[in-house]
Design goal:
Largest sheet: 6 strands, antiparallel
Structural class: alpha+beta
Radius of gyration: 21 Å
Number of helices: 8
Distance between the termini: 56 Å
Strand order of the largest sheet: 1-2-4-5-6-7
Helix content: 10-25%
Length: 325
């Protein structure tokens, strides 16, 4: 009888441990700071905020491959504490100094006959060694953006770059939604500004130059040898092989969850661009990938950030999957 009780206790502990380990990756992550009510208090823009002109000490960042968000365009900014620098040691995220502010503004250039419609700005702030996330919804009447903790929806009619007019019910994420995508174990991290995604040519001061070199020369980024860094290809570039484009697309739109420390870390798909094909799980999930990206609803992927299908992205993934067969 004693042995049976010990055996039962042993299995109970094992089951509890497995459940706990599985659950910890999905627990909400609370902010460690209180965000200001108005975006204007962070001093990110010069002059009228709606012009999106960066203030002194605020730098534009551009990415090689980007996240699809209902055909929205995005401006990415970074504000480092005065005299501080990022430090690049590999292709992943650089080491950011304490007090770094990263902002991403979502807008439509052609919406409802207007020149531009600003929707939201998302902030990431590094304080006490931890990232904190918040979302601000633009109030065009007041020329500012207001903290929106619970998320919301913004109906907007837009004309995308392919010339098609679309009705979008744009979804602004809640703070909980932000933590779902930006999760790494039980902390938040930025997603897009990896060194390999910043290692591209950009137009600065009227000339084309490498973005890492530009940031380095401005005293914002330290590195030893830029030639050791890779580059995530632009999945919009039709001149590149389909495999590279599709892997880059999934890296930017899926890998923030489908990586070992993400929300879907327990799943069989690992979609970071640097992961070898044999270790991605793509061969065993081909049909699932196509079906879940091609239809909206409960099982749609990505689970957040889109309310319409990215037709070009789905077509790219389908071509890639068919090439594997």
């Amino acid at each position: 009888m004693k042995n049976k009780l010990l055996l039962l206790l042993f299995f109970t502990v094992i089951v509890a441990y497995v459940v706990f380990m599985h659950d910890t990756g999905n627990r909400p992550i609370a902010n460690g700071i209180r965000f200001n009510e108005r975006l204007s208090t962070y001093g990110l823009f010069h002059g009228q905020m709606a012009n999106l002109e960066p203030a002194a000490g605020v730098e534009i960042l551009e990415l090689g491959s980007t996240l699809f968000t209902d055909y929205a365009e995005k401006q990415r900014l970074i504000k480092l504490p005065k005299g501080k620098r990022m430090r690049a040691t590999g292709n992943a995220l650089p080491e950011f100094p304490e007090g770094t502010v990263i902002a991403k503004t979502f807008y439509y250039s052609r919406a409802e006959g207007k020149k531009r419609r600003l929707i939201e700005t998302r902030l990431l702030i590094l304080q006490n060694g931890l990232w904190n996330a918040a979302t601000y919804q633009w109030d065009m009447a007041k020329g500012d953006a207001i903290l929106l903790e619970q998320g919301g929806h913004v109906p907007v009619n837009i004309q995308s770059k392919d010339g098609i007019v679309r009705k979008i019910n744009y979804q602004i994420p809640s703070q909980k939604d932000c933590t779902s995508c930006h999760r790494s174990d039980n902390q938040l991290i930025p997603i897009g500004p990896k060194i390999s995604n910043l290692n591209i040519e950009v137009l600065r001061n009227g000339k084309r130059q490498n973005q890492l070199v530009y940031l380095h020369e401005k005293g914002l980024l330290d590195y030893k040898d830029r030639n050791h860094f890779g580059t995530i290809p632009d999945y919009h570039d039709a001149s590149l092989p389909t495999e590279q484009r599709a892997r880059a697309y999934m890296a930017m739109n899926c890998a923030h969850c489908h990586q070992p420390t993400g929300m879907a870390g327990q799943k069989s798909l690992k979609l970071d661009f640097s992961t070898s094909y044999e270790n991605t799980g793509i061969p065993f999930n081909k049909q699932n990938i196509v079906e879940r990206t091609a239809a909206m609803g409960e099982y749609h992927m990505p689970k957040m950030g889109t309310t319409v299908i990215d037709t070009a992205g789905v077509a790219l993934i389908r071509r890639y999957i068919l090439s594997l067969q």
